[in-house]
Input
Amino acid sequence: MTGPSEVVAAFDDPADNLAFDEALRAAPEAPVLWIWRNTDCVVVGRGQKIEREVKADVCASDGVPVLRRASGGGTVFHDPGNLNITLVLPGHGLAGKPLEALGELMTATVAGLGLPSRLGDRGLFVGDSKLCGFAVFRTRTGLLAHSTLLVSTAAERVGRYLTAAPADPRPLDSHRSQVASLADHGLRKGVADVTAAVRAAAAAQLGELTTRKPSAAELDWHRSLGHTRYHYSEWHSSGAQRS
Output
């Protein structure tokens, strides 16, 4: 069986990155790691209502797109100071507990950077501040879990685009938490150093990683998902797909 791998890919458009993130679930034979970044954007969870999560007028004024991903979980702000980590697991072994596997990976990463942390409700905290947010997407072909990791993103930028918790909470609403980046905790590491820490933690957890380009199946999924979801405005506004 093929061993664990790290796929190397980057796209200029955040929508293309989100499409590829989901495309990685295309029948994995072994664990897959993808480490990536987006330009400025807000990403809501699959079933969330934009009007309850996002200051849409501020996003429009600043030219920050509001996008939707396939997984659940809460709304997040992406910028180049935020690292995204995708972990895809096949239908055996760790795949039964994808969030636990992701939590182990991110805990080890942060420990490798010299910070103590604790696992909380779908995220990793340093003190009272959230450093990483988690989400998962389960399909018949694979289990995809992903995490944000705030390297240098300023907390005030997050607050500029995301709403406060609504007065009438609903099940799919984000659970707002105070956030702080590695830089806020005094750890002024560059993205390259933090990426290396993620790779080291993944290799210790999963085994030696082979670096590879996207497979033909992943690229096919990427094109298909771009058409039906990520380059279709209704997907981002309401979650409706194009046939």
User: Anything to note?
Assistant: The chain is about 35% helix and 20% strand. Helices lie at 14-23, 50-53, 56-62, 98-112, 155-161, 191-206, 216-230, 233-238. Residues 191-206 form the longest helix (16 residues). The radius of gyration is 17 Å.
